[in-house]
Write a structure and sequence with these properties.
CATH class of the largest domain: Alpha Beta
Number of helices: 8
Strand order of the largest sheet: 6-7-8-3-9-10
Distance between the termini: 45 Å
Number of domains: 2
Order of helices and strands: EEEHEEEHHHEHEHEEHHEEEEEEEEEE
CATH superfamily of the largest domain: P-loop containing nucleotide triphosphate hydrolases
Structural class: alpha+beta
Largest sheet: 6 strands, mixed
Oligomer: single chain
Bound molecules: adenosine-5'-triphosphate, magnesium ion
Length: about 350
């Protein structure tokens, strides 16, 4: 045991199922006060990673450390980890109190300790008045809070959550996101939260780990993941972006779009070889729109439709070909009219350029 090093260390962990590499040489450190989101598409290995941390499954290679202790061979109940999994539903024929006491009975705690812990969890999660109800007498959000309580009742050193809000409607989900984050900050233990929903990942976490095909694509502070994606996958998967094909011009200083008569300054590092094929990703809210009559450089387009999204407008822009580009703009007093002719452009510093795959 040592107090040095990170609170949790996932060290070069791989998990194979026959030919399937569910996780491939993945390393992540987690600090004590962090809310970590594990973000990736379906089948990328997110649940596998949680099962390995929980001890419900063993890595094929690699080690897992909690507070400096190698727990790779420890059974789940000796790891001090709480879990809230989408499929771990509440027992329908037991009250909230009995549901919450369940993990404590499993580890054979004394009646006094069980009573103390129940009182604690009732207070922390504001379950007053609900303790003697059955799950079907609770709202979806209340049920979710009880499930969270069951994960926390044994005072875990770490809470794992696997898509716990996937079954809730959007409004309730957003409320619960704020609540869960508040509990994490209040309790001061790390939460590792799996989701394939990037909005959820970005709204809740301190750091985001992006997983793709079992590999760690990116791990960093959420704003950096959003603003400065380091791989094409992250650029595509985090935020809503539009991809353009381009070629570096003979001077190396500009990128000429393959399908449009538009060139942007080449602000990319290390991608200046003339003739080099590149991909450019622009977040949909980073486009600049100007009336075509102003004569600015850009992609000529026409407003095909305008969609209202709360305080934002989504312009569906037609460029003549089959391609449609979506540009998101803050709502103005006068939205641009349908059929308006525009020039679409962006700042060199506002796009992400990669060598073409
Ligand atoms: N017990 C198993 N046996 C064989 N293959 C498995 C097993 N468990 C997972 N896999 C495979 O490992 C890969 C990762 O699965 P995992 O459940 O971790 O994905 P996920 O990111 O949680 O996906 P989702 O978002 O759909 O829940 C998938 O290709 C899956 O089919
Ligand atoms: Mg999963």
């Amino acid at each position: 045991m040592t107090s040095e090093g990170p609170y949790i260390r996932i060290d070069q962990v791989s998990r194979r199922y026959g030919p399937v590499r569910a996780l491939d040489d993945l390393s992540i450190d987690i600090e004590k006060h962090e809310f970590i989101a594990i973000l990736g598409p379906s089948g990328s290995g997110k649940s596998t990673l949680l099962r390995l941390i929980a001890g419900l499954d063993r890595p094929t290679t690699g080690r897992i450390y909690i507070k400096g202790e190698d727990v790779t061979e420890l059974p789940p109940h000796k790891r001090g980890i709480g879990m809230v999994f989408q499929e771990f539903l509440l027992f329908p024929h037991r009250t909230v109190r009995e549901n919450l006491a369940f993990p404590l009975r499993m580890t054979k705690e004394t009646p006094q300790k069980i009573a103390d812990r129940l009182a604690w969890v009732e207070g922390v999660l504001s379950l007053n008045g609900l303790m003697d109800r059955y799950p079907n007498q609770l709202s979806g959000g209340q049920q979710q809070r009880v499930a969270l309580g069951r994960g926390l009742v044994a005072h875990p050193t770490l809470l794992l959550l696997d898509e716990p809000l996937a079954n809730l409607d959007r409004e309730l989900r957003q409320e619960m996101e704020v609540e869960i984050r508040r509990y994490q900050k209040q309790l001061g233990i790390p939460f590792v939260y799996v989701t394939h929903n990037q909005e959820e990942a970005l709204s809740m976490s301190d750091r985001v780990a992006v997983i793709h095909r079992g590999r760690l694509e990116a791990y960093g502070e959420r704003q950096a993941i959003y603003d400065r994606p380091q791989t094409p996958f992250v650029a595509r998967f985090v935020g809503k972006s539009t991809k353009f094909a381009g070629v570096v011009d003979p001077t190396g200083g500009f990128i000429k779009l393959a399908d449009h008569d538009y060139a942007v300054a080449n602000a990319a590092t290390g991608l200046h070889r003339p003739g080099m094929a590149v991909e450019i990703f622009v977040k949909n809210e980073r486009f600049d729109l100007h009336p075509a009559a102003e004569g600015r450089a850009g992609i000529p387009c026409v407003v095909g439709d305008v969609v209202l999204r709360g305080p934002f407008l989504e312009y569906i822009l037609e460029t003549g070909g089959r391609e449609r580009i979506i540009a998101v703009q803050p709502k103005r007093v006068d939205p641009l009219p349908l059929g308006a002719s525009l020039s679409l452009s962006w700042d060199a510093g506002q796009c992400h350029v990669f060598a073409a795959e």
